[in-house]
Amino acid sequence: MKQCSKCGKKKPKSSFYECSSGTRDGLNSWCKNCFNKKSLEYHRLNKEKNRQWQKKYYYSNQESILVKAKKYQQEKRKSSEDFREKENIRWHNRQARIRENGGTFTLKEWQDLKKKYNYTCQMCGKKEPEIKLTKDHIISLKNKGKNIIENIQPLCGSCNSKKGTK
Question: What one-character DSSP code corresponds to residue 58?
């Protein structure tokens, strides 16, 4: 129990905010209720001062946040193809974990597999860049196939969707 220096009531220690200004017990001298009332009163009386502070600090920081976000988007666009491929592989690996099939593969393994098959769709024979090769699980994840590179073949999007989960 602790006594509030503002209202004088004895309250449990959980009714006081923590304070880092060197108090013995590490708690504020005012209870949360008194502290919140004082804070609300201060903000009500100093609306204009608060607006100026927000304009100065919050909105200026917002601009820097927007600049950082724009730079991040530009970085993503520069390496967008690799970024999309990595995200797609991450999705496949996550699906295998969710289904408890096991196995993972990497972007390097996928690129090596495409190179091994000469960047050609295994069903229709078309080559990249005419088509975009996609990852097809020979035994699908739904049918308890493993998510390993040995269970993956490069197919174009239309052949992959025709095959389905067969």
Answer: I
Three-state SS sequence of 128-141:
CCCCCEEEEECCCH
> What is the model's pTM?
0.50
The mean per-residue pLDDT over the stretch 21-28 comes to 82
**Phi, psi at residue 120, to the nearest 5°?**
-120, 140
87 beta partners: none
Rounded-to-integer distance, Cα 148 and Cα 91, Å: 13
DSSP state of 100: T
CA angle (104 as vertex; 101, 110 as ends), nearest 5: 130
pLDDT at 80 over 80: no
Please check whether residue 9 is in contact with residue 31, taking contact to mean a CB–CB distance below 8 angstroms: yes
